[in-house]
Write a structure and sequence with these properties.
The protein is α/β, with parallel strands linked by helices. The chain has a single domain, classed as Rossmann fold (3-Layer(aba) Sandwich). Helices cover 23% and strands 32% of the residues. The chain contains 5 helices and 13 strands. A 9-stranded mixed β-sheet has the order 2-1-3-4-13-12-11-8-9. It has a 4-stranded mixed β-sheet with strand order 6-5-7-10. The radius of gyration is 16 Å and the shape is globular. The relative contact order is 0.18.
Amino acid sequence: MSGSKVGIVDVGIGNIASIRNMISKCGAHADVVNEPSNLYSYKKIILPGVGNFKTAITKLRDRGFDAELINIAQDRNIQILGICLGMQLLCRFSEEGNVAGLGIVSADVKKISFKQPSSEKIPHMGWNAVTPAKKSKLFDNSQVDERFYFVHSFKVVPDDVNIIAGTTEYGGKFCAAFECQNIFGVQFHPEKSHNFGKNILKNFSIL
C-alpha cells in the first residue's frame, strides 16, 4: 500500500492539503502536480475543485492541463477522479458561465432547481446520504446509504444514466457519483466526509 502513488492536479482550485492528508491515512502516497507533463508519472490522478466553473476551466487551460487530461483519459491504465467541481470539469458543458468543460464525460452541468416551493436552499450544503446505483469501485459494493459532505449549486446530468454510480436526494434525485471505465467523479467532498470519505479515496487510490 505504501507504494501506491496518486497525482493531485494543483492549479489553485482545490483542497489539496486535505485530500493529500486523507490519502496518506489510506496508506497511499500523493504528490501535488503543478506541471501537466508530470501527470504521466501516475496511474491514479485526482482533479479537485472548489469555486466557479468558468474560473477553474480557464486556469486548467492556461496551465495546459486540459489537453493532457484529455489525452490521459484515453489511456485505460490511468484512472482519473474528479472531486466536487473537479467532477463537473470532466463534463462537456456547464450552465455556470455557459462554458465548455473538458468533455471527457458525456454529461452537462446544470443548476440545481426545485419543481415546487421547497424549504431546501441553494447551495446544497451539508451532509446527505448517497445511495449506490450500481456495482462500483468507489463504493466497494456497498449496499447501504453512506453520508457525505456536499457544497454545490450545480449538478451533473449524464447522457447515459448507466454511468451513475451513486445518487442523492435534494430537490429530486441527482447524480452524486459516476464511473465510466477509467473515469470517476464524486459531487461530494470525500476529504471532508470522515470514514465514508476515507473509504472512497482508499478504494480509488489503492484498489
